[in-house]
Amino acid sequence: MSHTRESFTAWAGAQLSGTGWTLATMRFATGADGDLAGAALADGFAAAAWAQADGSVEALLAVEAAAAAVVTE
Amino acid sequence: MSAELFDLALRVAARDGAGIAARLVYSPVTPRPNRVAIEAKPAGRGRVAVLACGPDRKVHSGIDAAGLAAIAAATGAVNGDIGAGATAVVAPATLGVLAPLATRYAAPASGVGIDVRAGSALVGWWAERSDHPGTSAVVDILALSRQRYIAGVAPGADLALWWQEKLGVGGSLPGMLDWLDRVSTGPALPTLTAPACPIRSDDDWLLARHRDSILNGHSWDSRESLHLAAARLASRCDAADIYAAALFDDPLWRARGVHTGFVCHGEVVAGSTSQGRRVMVKSRRMDTRLKPGSAVLGWSGPPMGPKGALSNQFRGDVFATSVHHGGLLLTVGGLGRTDYLPAAGETVTIIAAPPSASLIRSRRQAVAGLYRQRFSWLSQGTAPTTARRAVPLAVLIAAAETEGE
């Protein structure tokens, strides 16, 4: 297990190299001031949080299903 | 383009949470009601050992022709009627092992039973359709898992065993059917389930050809006309285009698409009116792939918001792009009479317009007509002049893999 964690840490560190972010700081990324790397990190965390939040996915699917029903009527 | 960092954030969120995180809200597959898990391995001296497990969860097995008969038994096609087909649930290498075996028993002259021919025809159908993204014929279960969810481990460390443990499904053949249930839960991408979706009708068309070949005592692997070969090649391009567009039905994929440049969003700075059917959008990101001349689809709201009803959407063409005060100004014109007309200050999302099923159908009819004409270069086989056209990356990769074999 620790080997897996180490390899993940090494891989993630390589992905972040040159962005100014690290595995420890990346959750603070906001994407302000044209920081595209930070924006991608912030959006990724926001997407994960949205998908895990209670009811958010169900609410979106309900809206889309209602819209599709209007189209097929 | 920073989509890899978006994925990295998802992976970290997965690692720190439940171990997996959703990449797609919708299921990217549309399996048929009849599903069969297949395993095939070389058994020495050119023979192939096959295991198959259908909805009754009984495991059938055999070597070579008996293996194809096992597939027929698992799918309920022992009488030669492959019916509405069955979705094969496979590991990545399975069809590469099975396809040559199926071809060997494609013709009635091979002197085998109708069940073996049914198994052969099904495998031939799976092998052909597996090159078409979004097909209902085959599911590569590992690829599907990685498409639907992202694992909280480094890429490549999420092998079959990892997913089986994480999803709590058994490693046996029946477990693969449970695995499919787990990763295909929820509604499928709306584009793939639309009645006019060409991928599904192409699946059905080829299945009917294979079904007829059994009933009429022909080989399903017979030589094709020039037109048919060209049409099937074109259908691969269509499938890749349709599937790529279908993914943008999904809010999570659209969120990622912002970082690949395929999704543009921003604030309307010059709204549309019923007289001037154009809209000017200012985006903070400059890296859009939408270029002047691109047909686009837009709607009111952010990328992860619902696209909503047609009355919330607009279609048009990119008229111009320019840079203004550090932002990208995108002018979309040619909005339709019934389109939504965004007002200044609204947030809109814009993506490339998805392929039109009716245009695909009419193009196919036009090409079929040209092949029938006596003096068309298509029917004569004379070399045309060189012309360039865009080919989806997935098709190029598939062709390169075939070249290398």
- DSSP helix fraction of chain B: 25-40%
Averaged pLDDT of chain B, please? 92
The counted number of beta strands of chain B is 13
Q: Assembly type of the shown chains?
A: heterodimer
Radius of gyration of chain A: 18 Å
The N- to C-terminal Cα distance of chain B equals: 33 Å
Shape of chain B: globular
Mean pLDDT of chain A: 88
Number of DSSP-assigned strands of chain A: 0
Helix-strand pattern of chain B: HEEEEHEHHEHEHHHHHHEEEEEEHHH
**Beta-strand content bin of chain B:** 15-25%
Helix content of chain A: 55-70%
Number of helices of chain A: 3
Structural class by secondary-structure content of chain A: mainly alpha
Radius of gyration of chain B: 24 Å
- Assign an overall shape of chain A: elongated
Main pleated sheet of chain B: 6 strands, antiparallel, barrel
Describe the structure.
With 73 residues, chain A is an all-alpha fold. Chain A is 67% helix and 0% strand. In chain B, the strands form three sheets. Chain B has a six-stranded antiparallel barrel. The longest helix of chain B has 21 residues, at 226-246. The mean pLDDT of chain B is 92.
Short characterization:
The complex is a heterodimer of chains A (73) and B (405). With 73 residues, chain A is mostly helical. Chain A is built from three helices and no strands.
Topology overview:
The complex is a heterodimer of chains A (73) and B (405).
Chain A: H1 2-16, H2 36-52, H3 56-72
Chain B: H1 3-16, E1 20-22, E2 35-42, E3 48-53, E4 59-63, H2 65-75, E5 87-90, H3 94-104, H4 114-129, E6 138-140, H5 141-148, E7 149-151, H6 160-167, H7 173-183, H8 190-193, H9 198-215, H10 226-246, H11 251-257, E8 263-270, E9 278-283, E10 295-300, E11 313-324, E12 327-333, E13 347-352, H12 357-372, H13 377-380, H14 393-404
Parallel strand pairs in B: 2-5, 5-6
Antiparallel strand pairs in B: 1-7, 2-3, 3-4, 8-9, 8-13, 9-12, 10-11, 10-13, 11-12
